[in-house]
């Protein structure tokens, strides 16, 4: 989101940095049909006659018009495109460069991306000429931004799909050569189960995530505020996992929010993440960029690989 990091949270607030005024976000969302669904159709808000005409763009056709039509951009576009969106240069994220250099070529390989945000990491993957990228995004506004990024940057190797990655991993039988899961694990309601399902679908995975570590966050650390203090223990593949309960503290009311699907989510302990990955068959785990002082909470990058199957 210098390394840049995917900004899925900040201390005490998990919304991505907002490019636009909140009022713009509130204006655009109803026109896109994104208010909370109501079973009673009579309760659905009815736009005024003036608001109906607001959905038309009367300026000269451009990519910038499309960018401006969607609220809450976090990412910038490559400078050569001369477009204004967010500020984060995730199209040149050195974490992803490191992952690709360490893994090796993905040319001609099948890639899974979990939580593409706005498609800038997808752009980096695409430039390495994979056979295909399946990018799964659950946030509807992020998904639309991804589609727009695909159009502007011509990311023709990627298919962006809207929905829950847990359901995709449970039902999709294909095994990928490489997976990218940057900024998603710590938003999960069941992160251990996610890793278990992911391990059944990919031979190698890059993860950037926050984690819990008592010695890195003393009791008076402001980064502890979103945590409830409740710790649950879950068993996945015989490995006991500590789940630290956390809330977004109303950050999800912002148009730029790009966190998880539920307010109640859990961070895993650092050691438990590594123990579970090893149990799931990832015998080669390389850690990079461990940052105990990250403003959002302790974090690290890792690349986990399974041993090649015996021929």
Largest sheet: 7 strands, mixed
The name of the CATH superfamily of the domain at 90-305 reads Vaccinia Virus protein VP39
Number of helices: 9
CATH topology of the domain at 90-305: Rossmann fold
Count of strand segments = 10
Q: What proportion strand?
A: 15-25%
Helix content: 25-40%
CATH class designation of the domain at 90-305: Alpha Beta
The class by helix and strand makeup works out as alpha/beta
CATH architecture of the domain at 90-305: 3-Layer(aba) Sandwich
H/E order of the elements?
Answer: HHHHEHEHEHEHEEEEHEE
Mean pLDDT: 86
- Tell me, what's the shape? globular
Strands in their spatial order, largest beta sheet: 3-2-1-4-5-10-9
Outline of the structure:
This protein is of the alpha/beta class and 311 residues long. The chain has helices at 22-32, 49-54, 63-69, 94-103, 120-126, 140-153, 165-171, 191-199, 270-279, and strands at residues 110-114, 132-137, 158-162, 178-182, 204-210, 227-236, 239-246, 265-268, 284-291, 299-305.
